[in-house]
From TrEMBL:
Matching SMART domains: AAA
InterPro entries to which the protein is assigned, alphabetical: AAA+_ATPase (IPR003593), ABC_carbohydrate_import_ATPase (IPR050107), ABC_transporter-like_ATP-bd (IPR003439), ABC_transporter-like_CS (IPR017871), P-loop_NTPase (IPR027417)
One protein family per Pfam: ABC_tran
Keywords, alphabetical: ATP-binding, Nucleotide-binding
UniProt domain ABC transporter: residue ranges: 4-243
Key word Phosphoprotein present: no
Family: Belongs to the ABC transporter superfamily.
Source species of the chain: Mesorhizobium marinum
Protein name: ATP-binding cassette domain-containing protein
């Protein structure tokens, strides 16, 4: 069974049609690259999946059940997590504190309860080991590389036992070595059975890690193909409009 299905989903803002009649499905442990030029509708599509926007038309279904989401917390409750391009991390806090931000563990009850730092450090360490990341729970985020910061952001999604992780340009503005770290983290999510939607402008990254590529242009889906059946040249043509629709 598909973990996620979009069925004829559209979104308009007044007279502006941002997404038009898009359908696709996502299986557990599948990595799908979502590509398109600026204004193609990628972000709007992902924000509907993440609960930021409600579709104007169409249905979002998860594991066979129709979803009606009013805000991001509704998506998180269903196991849908998003890693934003800016990561939304607190630089002055440790990796563990960022992983548990807003979901801190406590010892004791009532007014006498205190933060359980030992348990949070231990659980964060387990998550980073699962991701095979060198990130350490007690390190300050402001001292970390781009790849380590991504590990912290992804660690937050694993804390909530996510079924789907939406990643917005995770390899933008980082070094080649750090890109390799992030792609490795995506593969770790895939190997744990978590579905990943990778929004990216970087063709080599998508073709390196994705199972399928979906291309958006002017709010419409113009391709949904297995990576092995496409090529960077075809995807570039679909993005620019040189190729109208994938064969």
């Amino acid at each position: 069974m598909a973990v996620l299905e979009l069925i004829n989903v559209s979104k308009h803002f007044g007279a502006i049609q941002a997404v038009s009649d898009v359908s696709f499905s996502l299986s557990p442990g599948e990595v799908v690259g979502l590509m398109g030029d600026n204004g193609a509708g990628k972000s709007t599509l992902v924000k509907m999946i993440a609960g930021n926007y409600r579709p104007s038309e169409g249905t979002i279904r998860m594991e066979g059940t129709d979803l009606v989401m009013h805000r991001p917390v509704d998506a998180r409750r269903h196991g849908i997590e998003i890693v934003h391009q800016d990561l939304a991390l607190c630089d002055n806090l440790t990796a563990a504190a960022n992983v548990f931000l807003g979901r801190e563990l406590r010892r004791g009850v009532g007014p006498f309860g205190v933060l359980d730092y030992a348990s949070m450090y231990n659980r964060a360490a387990e998550i980073f080991r699962e991701l095979k990341s060198e990130t350490r729970p007690r390190d300050l985020v402001k001292q970390m590389s781009g790849g380590q910061r991504q590990a912290v952001a992804i660690g937050r999604t694993m804390l909530s036992e996510a079924k789907i992780v939406l990643m917005d340009e995770p390899t933008a503005a980082i070094s080649v070595r750090q890109v390799a770290e992030v792609l490795h983290l995506i593969r770790q999510l895939r190997d744990k059975g978590i579905a990943v939607v990778l929004i990216s402008h970087r063709m080599p990254d998508v073709f390196s890690v994705a199972d399928r590529v979906i291309v958006m242009r002017r709010g419409r889906k113009v391709a949904d193909k297995a990576i092995g059946s496409s090529s960077p040249e075809e995807v570039t043509g679909l993005i620019t409009g040189a190729i109208e629709m994938a064969a």
